[in-house]
């Protein structure tokens, strides 16, 4: 009586020849690059917003803002940093930075794809090797 494990062991013990293929990357689709860079930018925007929230919460919890208020009152009694830095201001700034980053990264991905497609005409493309196990 043969079990499934015995059959799998026989299959894994048989040596298969690995076939190697060398391919040249000669074209990057423009819209694929734009979509991929947009998705990467969305992920980066989410990381930016979450990280800025966490950093602000750590700074607020440790009391650094109140200590800076005490430091600034030594120079000017009317100035308080806590009046200008709050959670809403920090999150609004993070959202603006995330949106600008979204646009810049998306455009940069499109530009890099276009430059690569132009450079392929000069260099012939990127040689990539693949193997199958």
Q: How do the strands and helices of this protein lay out in sequence?
A:
Blueprint: H1 4-13, E1 19-25, H2 30-62, H3 64-75, H4 87-123, E2 126-132
Antiparallel strand pairs: 1-2
Give the gist of this structure.
The chain has 4 helices and 2 strands; from the N terminus they run αβαααβ. The protein is mainly alpha-helical.
Account of the protein in words:
The chain has 133 residues and is mainly α. 69% of the residues lie in helices and 11% in strands. A two-stranded antiparallel ribbon has the order 1-2. The radius of gyration is 27 Å and the shape is elongated. It starts with a helix and ends with a strand.
Brief descriptors of the model:
single chain, mainly alpha, 4 helices
Radius of gyration: 27 Å
Strand order of the largest sheet: 1-2
- Terminal CA distance reads 30 Å
The helix count comes to 4
Q: Which secondary-structure class do the elements indicate?
A: mainly alpha
Helix content range of the residues, please? Answer: 55-70%
**Strand content range:** 5-15%
Contiguous runs where pLDDT drops below 50 for at least 5 residues = none
Number of E strands = 2
Shape: elongated
pLDDT average, as an integer? 87
Report on the biggest sheet. 2 strands, antiparallel
Q: What string gives the helices and strands in order?
A: HEHHHE
């Amino acid at each position: 009586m043969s079990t499934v494990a015995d059959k799998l062991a026989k299959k894994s013990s048989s040596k298969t020849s690995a076939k190697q293929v060398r391919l040249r990357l000669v074209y990057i689709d423009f819209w694929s690059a734009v979509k991929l860079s947009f998705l990467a930018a969305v992920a980066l925007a989410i990381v930016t917003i979450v990280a800025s929230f966490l950093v602000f919460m750590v700074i607020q919890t440790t009391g650094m803002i109140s200590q800076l208020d005490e430091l600034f009152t030594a120079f000017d009694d009317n100035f308080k940093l806590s009046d200008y830095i709050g959670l809403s201001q920090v999150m609004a700034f993070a959202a603006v930075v995330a949106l600008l980053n979204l646009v810049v990264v998306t455009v940069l991905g499109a530009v890099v794809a276009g430059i690569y497609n132009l450079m392929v005409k000069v260099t012939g493309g990127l040689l990539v090797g693949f193997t199958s196990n």
